[in-house]
Amino acid sequence: MNTILFFTIYSGVIAFIGLVSLFLNNKKAIQKASPPLSIFIISLLSAAYIILNFTKLKPNAILELLNWEIPFGKLQFGLDSLSGLFLIPLLILTAATSIYGWKYFGQHKQEKGHWLYFTVLVSGMVLVILSRNAIAFIFSWEIMSVSSFFLVITDKTNEKTNEKTMRAGLIYFVTAHFGAALLFIVFFILSNSSGSFEFASWHNLQLSPFKSSLIFILALIAFGTKAGFMPFHIWLPLAHPAAPSHVSALMSGIMIKMGIYGLFRILTFISPYQAWWGMLLIIIGSVSGILGVLFAIGQHDIKKLLAYHSVENIGIIMLGLGIGVSGSAYGYPLIAFFGFAGALLHVINHAMFKGLLFLGAGAIIRQTNTGELDKLGGLIKRMPVTSVLFIVGSIAIAGLPFFNGFISELLIYLSSLFGIIDSSNIPMAFLAVSTGASLALIGGLALACFTKVIGTALLGTEREQFPETVSEVPGSMLAGMILLALVCITIGMGSYFIVPILTGPISIMTGSPNFLNVTLMMNITKTLTIVLFSILVLGLIIALILKSIIKKNKPVKIVNTWDCGYSAPKASMQYTASSFAEPITDYFSIPLNISKKENVDSAFFPNNKWHFHSQANDWILTKILEPFILLIGRFFSSFKWLQNGRSGFYVLYIAIAILFLIVWKFFI
Amino acid sequence: MKENLLPWISLAIVLSNLYIVSSSRLTYQIRGVVVQGLLLSILPLILFPGEDFIHMIILFVMGVAIKGIIVPKYLLKTIQDVRVEREVHPLIGYSFSLFYGVITAGLSFFLINRIDILPDNFSPFHLSAALATAFIGIYLIIARRNVVSQIIGYLVLENAGFTLSLSVAVSQPLFVEMGILLDLVGGIFIMTIAVNHIYSEHESLSVKSLERLIQ
Amino acid sequence: MTNTDLLILSILTVFILGVVLSLLNSKAKHFLYIPAYISGMVFILFIPIGIKTIEYGPYTIMGGNFLFDALSIYHIFLVNFVFLITSIYSIGYFTRHIENHGDFETSFIRRYTILWQTFQMFLLIVLLSNNIGFMWVSLEATTLISAFLIISPSNPLSIEAMWKYLIVCSVGIVFGFMGTILTVVAAQNNSTFLFTQLVEHSDLINPKIILLAFIFIIVGFGTKAGLAPMHTWLPDAHSQAPTPVSAVFSGVMLNVALFGIMRYLSVTDLALGNDGQAQSILLIFGFISIFIAVIFIPLQHDIKRLLAYCSVEHIGIIAIGLGLGGLGTFAALFHITNHSLSKVIAFFSAGHISEIYGTRDMRRIKAASSSIPVWGSVFFISMLILIGVAPFAIFLSELLIVKNAFFDHRYIVTALFLIAVFAIFISLLKHTLGTSFGINNSKITENIKVGILDKAIVISVISVLLILGIWIPGPFKELLNNASLIIQNGVRL
Amino acid sequence: MKIILIFISPLAALIFSPLFSGIINKVKAFISGRKGQPLLQVYYNLFKLFKKGTIYSSTTSWIFRISPVLIFTFTLAATAFIPVLQIHTGALFKGDFILMLYLLGISRFFLIISAMDTGSAFEGMGASREAFFSALVEPVMFICLINIMKVAHTDSLAAALLDPMTSNSIAMFFSAIPLFILLLVENARIPFDDPSTHLELTMIHEVMILDNSGPSLGMLEYAASIKLWLFSLILALLVIPELPFGLLIKTIVLGLIMIIIAIIVGIIESIMARSQLFRIPQIIFGAGVISFLGFFIITTDILVW
User: Where are the domains of chain A?
Assistant: First the structure.
C-alpha cells in the first residue's frame, strides 16, 4: 500500500476515534478503554509499518486528494524520509501516551472531549508532517495548535491552578498564532517567488540572499514560537505543567518538534545557506540550552522543570542544526552531515526520553497529588518501577552513555570536533568550539538538574508521610513508560542499527551525502556499540565479584543513616531541591532572576521552623513582554474617550470623516 | 429673473441659518426652520422657470405644506406635549455659534467658487447656500444638548440635502420628492416618536440623560 | 409579466400576509411563529429566482428598476438564511422571556413581528434596487423601521441606544442622499439613475463629481454599515437590542449597507478609469475600523458590546478586502458570509448566556462552557471562528486578504492588517477564555433546555463554516467569482 | 594487537593508581615533617575494606548498593581511552574521548544520586557541590582536550597526546595549566576539597561517601584513585617531550613525570589551605579563560611558538 495514503488514512482514522469517543460512556470500563487502546494498537502498528518501510520512502511522491477549490493550488500530501523521521517518534509517543492516558485520570473526572482533542492533535501533527502545500500546512498547523490549546486548559482542579491554567492557555494560544501569522509571510514570500503554494515548486528557487535571509529569519521566529527556544519559550513552562501529563508528554515530546520539522523543511527550500545563519542558530542553541537548563535547575515543580528541559533540548537540536548549516555554508559536508545527523537523532531521542519523563512525573503527581519536589521523597520504595523508568529517562536526558541521549549528543560533538580539527576556516572553528563547549556545559548542568530531581523526589525518605494509597501506578500506565524506556535503551545501545535511518533525511537537507561520511558514522556507531556492551559486561563481572565478596564477609547490617553523630536524623533534615540547587542558582542568580523565601530565626535557641525556598522566575515574560503589552494597552485605553456617549460627538466624527476625505481627495 | 433673485434667496437662506443657530429658544428656532423651508420651496420656481412648470408647482406646494406647515406644527405640538424646557442649552455659546455661521457661510461661497468641478448649468449660489446650511445643520446636532434642538439641526441638514437635490429637479424630480418624503417620515414621525419615548423614560429631553452608554 | 415578476409579487404578498396575520392574531404565542413561516416561505420563493439568475446572468425587471445578478442574489440568500434562523431562534427567545421573565407585553411582540417582516422586506428591496433612488429610500426605511426594533421595555437604556442609532444613521443617510444626488449630477449628461446604465455609460460620468459623490456615499452608507469612525451607534444598538435584533443587525444589516457601497464602488471605479482612488478610501476606512476595534475590544466587559466591536472589525476587514480589489474582492465577499453566520450564532449564544447568568458583564460570567454546555461551547467556538482560527472559514477569507495584499506588494497593508487582527485576536481571546472556562462559581440551578431547532441551527452553521474553511464548493466559488467580477467591472446586462 | 592495548591502560590504572595516591600522601607527610604511612598503605586500606562487613542505611534503596559497582566500572572503563604505552594506536573511534568524559559523567551521576539516597543533610550538601562544580568543569575540559588535538591536528585524543608537537607547542602551556586545575577540582584535592578528612570543612567528595562501608567504600576509594591516575596520566602524556628512546624508557620517563605530578599535588596540598567555596567557580572559570585563550591562539595562529 502507498505509505502516503496509509498515513493520510491514519490521521483520519485517529480523528474518527476521537469523534466516536464523544459518544462513549466513561463509566463503563470497556467503553472507557476502547479509545486509548485502539489508538495504542493502531499507532504502534503504524510505527512498525513506517520503520519497516522507511528505506522505501520516496522523496518526491505526491498524493493529491481533493480538487481544492480554494485559490491555493491542490491539496497535496507527501512522505519523504525527513517527514518519516518525525513520524516515527510521533507514532511511538502517541501509542505510549494513549495507553498511559487510559487510566491516568483515575478518580478524577475525565473531560468529555479529552480523547477528541488528543486525537485531533495527533492527526493534526501527522497532517503537518504530510502536507506538501503551504495552505494545507498552515491548516494542519492550526488544527494542531487549537486542539492542544483545548488540552492545555482541561485542568480545572481548583481556583488557584485554574487561573494559572487560563493564563497558560491564553499565552500558548497567542504565541502559537503569532508564529502562524509569521508563517503566512514566509509562505507568501516563497510562493510569490515561485508562483505556487505547492512545496514541490519551491525547490531551486534561486532566491536572492536578502530574500532567503528574510525567509530564514521569519521562519526561525515562526517555528521558534512552536519549538520554544529562547526567547520564544514563554508559553512552554506555562502550558506543559497545565496540561495532563500524557498530553504534556505528547506536546513536549513531539509537538514542539513540529517547529523543528518546519525549520528543516524551510531550510530545504532556501539553500545555499549563509554562514551567519549557522552562527545565529548556534547562538540561539547555546543560549536556550544553557539558560533552559539553568531555569530548570531553579524550578522545583517537576513538570515546570521538565518544560524548561524541553527548552534546553531544543537548544541542543538547534546547536546541531546550526553547526550543520554552518558546515554546509562553509563547504564542509562532513561537518554538515554530522550536525544534521545529531540534530535529527536528537529529535527522536528527546521525544522518547522527555515523553518518558513526563509520563513518570505524571505518575508521581497522580499518586501523590503534588509535583513539588520539596514535598516528595523516597518514592523509589513505593513506586519502584516508575522510579527506575524515571531514572532511565534522567540518564538519557543528561546525555549519558548507554541511553539514547548520548548518541545524538555524540554526533553533534563529532560535528563540532571535525569543525575544529579538520577545517582550516577560523570562524568555523570558533562556531564549532562554542557548540562543543556549550554542549558540555549543558550536559553537566542537566546532570546536576536530574540528580536533584531523582535525589529529592525518588530517593531518601518521605518528607511528609504519604498516605497508604501512594503506591505503584496501574500496569497500563507503566506499559506506556516501558515502551519509551525500551526505545531509549535500544537507541542507546544499538545505535549501529538506528543511525542508518538518518542518511535519508540528511540527503534531503544537503543533497546526497558522501558515501564516506555514512561509512564513517556507521564505523563509529559500530565500535561504540561494541564498547558499550563490553563495559556492561565488565560491570556485570565486577558486580558479581562484589556480591560474592559481600556475601563472604560479615552479614550486612541495616542501620540509620549516619549523620555525623546526630542520633535521630529526621526527614526534614534532608537536602531539599532548593538547597541542592542553591550553589548553582546563586552563581547564576542574575540571569535566573532568583527569588528566595527564607524564614530564618536567628535567636540562639530558634523556636520557629527554618525554611528555605528559591525559585527562578522567567523574566522574559514578566519583565519584558507583559509590561510591554500593558504599555500598549494603556496607550490604547487613552483613546477610550472617543466613545464618550455624546451623540453630538458621534455626528462630529461623521463630519470630520467627510471633511477629511474631501480635503484628501480634492486638495492634496 | 433667475440671475436676479437667486443670490438674494441664497442670502436669505444663509440669514435664516444664522437666525436658527443664534436663537436661544426652541420656538424661535422652529420659526427659523419655517422661514427656511418656505424659502427653499420657492427655489424650484426660481431655478427652473418654464421647465416642466406643473412639476415645479407641485414641488412648491409640497415644500410649503411639509416644510412650512406640517413639520413645524408637529414639532411645536411635541414640545408642548412633553413640556420641554424652552431654553436651548448650547454646548458652545451663541456668539461663537454666530461667528461659526458667518465663517462657514463665507467659506462655502469661497469653496464653491473655487472648485470648478460642477457642470456649467449649476448655480454657485444655491450650492453654496446648500453647503452653508449643511454646516449649520451638522453644527446644531453637534453643539446642542437638547433632543429637540438636534432634531431641528437634522431638519436643517435635510434642507441642505433638499437644496442640493433641486439641482437635479428637472431631470430627476423623483429625487426631490424623495427628499421631501424623507422630511416627512424621518424627521417628524420617527423622531418625534423617539422624543416621546425618551421623555416617557427619562422625564427630560436633555441629551445629558442619554449619555450613559459609553466606551 | 415574467415569471420573476410574479415571484417578486408573491414574495411581496407573503410579507403583507405576514403583517396582516400578525395584526389579526391575538395571542403572542401564535404570532411569534409568523416571522419564521414568512421567512421560510421567502427563502423558498427566492430559490428559483436565484437559480435562474445564476444560470442566465444579470437581468432586470419592472422597467429596469430591479436587478438580479450574482452579487444581489448572493446577498439575498444570506439575508434570507439569516432571517430564517433568527426568526426560528426568536420564537424560543420570546417564549422564554414571556414565560420566565414576563418582561414583554403582547403588544410589544406584535409590533416586533410586524417591524421584523417589514425590515426584511426593505432589506431585500435595497438588494434588488437597480435604481439608486430606490436603494437610498429603502435603506433609509430600514433605518427607521429597525430603530424601533432596538427598544425593548425590559431595558431602559435601549431608548438611548435607539436615539443614537436614529440620529447618527439619519445624519449618515442625509449624506447618502447627497451622494445619490451627486451621482445623478455626475451622470447628468446622460441623465440616468440606474446602476446598469451608469455602468454602461461610465465613460460619460464626470470623474470629479462622482468621486465627491462616492465620498458622500461611503460616509453615508458607511454609517449604516458600521465603518469607523461612523460606527459609534453600533455598540450601543447591538448591546441594548433584543438578541435576535442584534443578530440581524450584525449579520445582515451591515452587509446590506456595504452592498450599497459595492454597487457605487463599481460605478465610481469605472468612471475614474480604475485609478484606485475609490478603493483607497475603502482601505482607509477599513483600517480605521480595525484599529477602533483594537482600541475598544480590550475595554469591553459587556458581552454584546464586545461582539458589536467585533462587527466593526469584520466590516473593516471586508472594506479592506474590497479596497484591495482583485482577489481581495472575492475574499471580502466570502468574508461576508463567514462573518454573518458566525456572528449570528455568537449573538445567539451570548444572548442565551447573558440571560441565564442574568448579566451581560463578562466579569461575572464564568465557566459558561461547563455550566451551560451547549451555548457556552457554541459561544467559545463562534468566538474562535470570529478571531480567525483555522480551519474555520474566517481564517481562510482573512488569509486570502492577506495573501492578496502581500502579492500586490502592499507590505504595509499586510503588516498593519496582521498586527491589528492579531491584537484583536489576543484581546478577544482573553475575554472569551475567562467567560467560557474556569471554575463555575455561579449557582445556576435552572435546568437549561436547548430546543432541537436551536441545536440544529448552531450545528449546521458551525459545520457550514468548517466546510467552507477547508473546501469551497465549485458552484459557490463560481457565484462569488461572478459577484466579485460585478464589483470590479460593474454589472452588465 | 589493538584489542590488547585497550586492556593495558585499565590494567595499569588498576595496579598503579593506589601507588600514585600513596606517593601524594608520602609527600604530604614528608613536608609536614612526619614519617607518614607506608607507600603502599592505600593498597592495605583497600584490601582491609574489601574484607570488612557492610552496613547499609535503612533509608537507602538499591541505587545505593549498585552505585559503587557502576562508578568503579565506568571509571575503570574511562581509562581505556588514554594509552599508557606510548604506541601510536589511534582512536578506538573518532571522538572517543567524548565517551571517556561521559563515562566519568555517568559515574558521577551515580555517585551523586547514591549520596542523595541516604537522605542525609551532609551527603546532600556534598552532592550538590559536586554537581555544580563538575558541571562547570565539563566545558573547560572539553576545550583543553580540543586544544591538544587541534595542535596535533588529529581527531583522536590518544594520538594527540602521543604527538610530540603538543609538548612543544603553546597548547601544552594553555592546556596543562587548566588541566592541572581540573585535576585538583575533579579529584577533590586541596585547595578545592580535602581528601583526607570527613569533616564539615571538606564537604565535596568525601562527604558523599560517608555512609558507604566495607567493600562498597573500597570500590569508591579505588575508583577515586583511578580517576586521579587518569587525569595525571593525561597531564603527563601532554607534557612528555619527544624522546629518541625505546618504548620501555619512554614508559619509565612517563612514570617519572607521573611521580613529579604526584609530588606537585602533594606539595600544593601541604602548603595551601582549602579555599573558600565560592572561590571555586571563579578558579574554574579562570581555567576556562586560559584554555579558551589557548584555543584562540592556536586557531588564529597569532603566535608561532
Answer: 1-191, 272-526+578-599+607-623, 624-667
